[in-house]
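Need a sequence for this fold. Nothing fancy.
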């Protein structure tokens, strides 16, 4: 019995010698030291657009400010703000004090013309009968022609004075404002009223020199008014700085924007910079060292720090000018252990390795 116990104890001791070291053996000796696991992406061809938020004012595409062509007293006003008028419709009447004078001059010229024509006819009869010299007849012709010219001039002056005194709408549209009252004296510097056209509306805004370089006629703009979005197209880009603001004035025509009141302020967004079909990398993968951009690339388990030239960028993509190719594997996950020459594993590679190790252990146990 004692001998049997000794044999069992010996077997247990041998098993312990074989099994215990397996459990006590450091994990580092079984598996290689843990390294950062990273994900990679290749640079891709894409488009980057940089948007700039601005504000602008709504105006009609066509607007007329009516200014009298002659000074005088306003004697009648036929419209008020808010009225819709047609082209040629009377707006007001101005007593220019010149209509009567012009009428008298025209009437006098008409009498002189009539007398000159009668004298010319009498001279013609005498000339044809041989009772008037060639010189006298030609003088009568000249007098009649001069009288005709004087009458034409007087009539034009009269017609102008009549036109100047009767102010009419140059375009069809809505009367935005009337700035005069009856008995006001106006000059050729006064705006009598403003009429906005019935056509499409436009948004006027101003931009800096940096932004204006990226704007072109035909570019799309997005307008927001109290949550309602409208689309517009740039129709005019000034090449001269406004003396008052120091900015460049821009106009964009709007479609289906009749609900926007003239003079109202709106928010708008324009594409100030864009790059089409360029090589890009994720912006989150770009790091800066000493103010210079670089990315980390993966090369068979080794990390390389690669500087490159940056173009424009937004929150998602950064333009690559030079330094990278579409074949580079750019590391897109962050780790404090990324540096030139450090060792890493690709995401998913450790799972494959782990499955292989488990299968090997299971086979050994069997």
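Here you go.
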């Amino acid at each position: 019995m004692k001998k049997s116990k000794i044999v069992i104890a010996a077997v247990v001791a041998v098993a312990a010698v074989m099994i215990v070291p397996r459990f006590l053996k450091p994990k580092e000796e079984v598996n290689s030291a843990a390294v950062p696991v990273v994900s990679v992406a290749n640079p891709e061809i894409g488009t980057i657009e940089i948007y700039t938020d601005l504000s602008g004012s709504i105006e009609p595409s066509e607007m007329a400010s009516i200014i009298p062509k002659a000074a005088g007293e306003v004697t009648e006003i036929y419209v008020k703000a808010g009225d819709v008028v047609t082209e040629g419709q009377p707006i007001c009447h101005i007593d220019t004090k010149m209509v009567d004078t012009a009428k008298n001059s025209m009437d006098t010229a008409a009498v002189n013309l009539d007398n000159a024509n009668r004298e010319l006819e009498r001279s013609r009869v005498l000339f044809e009968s041989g009772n008037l010299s060639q010189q006298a007849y030609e003088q009568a012709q000249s007098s009649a022609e001069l009288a005709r010219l004087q009458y034409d001039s007087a009539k034009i002056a009269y017609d102008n004075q009549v036109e100047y005194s009767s102010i009419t709408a140059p375009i069809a549209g809505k009367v935005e404002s009337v700035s005069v009252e009856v008995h006001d004296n106006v000059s050729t510097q006064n705006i009598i009223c403003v009429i906005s056209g019935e056509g499409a509306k436009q948004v006027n805004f101003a931009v800096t020199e940096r932004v204006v370089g990226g704007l072109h006629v035909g570019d799309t703009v997005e307008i927001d008014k109290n949550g309602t979005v409208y689309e517009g197209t740039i129709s005019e880009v000034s090449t001269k700085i406004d003396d008052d603001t120091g900015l460049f004035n821009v106009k964009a025509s709007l479609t289906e924007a009749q609900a926007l009141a003239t003079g109202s302020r709106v928010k708008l967004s324009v594409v100030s910079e864009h790059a089409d079909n360029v090589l890009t990398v994720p912006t989150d993968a770009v790091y800066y060292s000493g103010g210079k951009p670089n990315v980390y690339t993966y090369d068979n388990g080794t990390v390389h720090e690669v500087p490159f030239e940056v173009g424009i960028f937004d929150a998602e993509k950064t333009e690559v000018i030079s330094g990278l190719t579409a074949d580079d594997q750019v590391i897109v996950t962050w780790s404090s252990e990324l540096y030139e020459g450090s060792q890493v594993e690709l995401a998913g590679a450790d799972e494959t390795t782990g499955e292989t190790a488990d299968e090997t252990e299971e086979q050994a146990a069997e």
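For context: The two ends are 34 Å apart (CA to CA).
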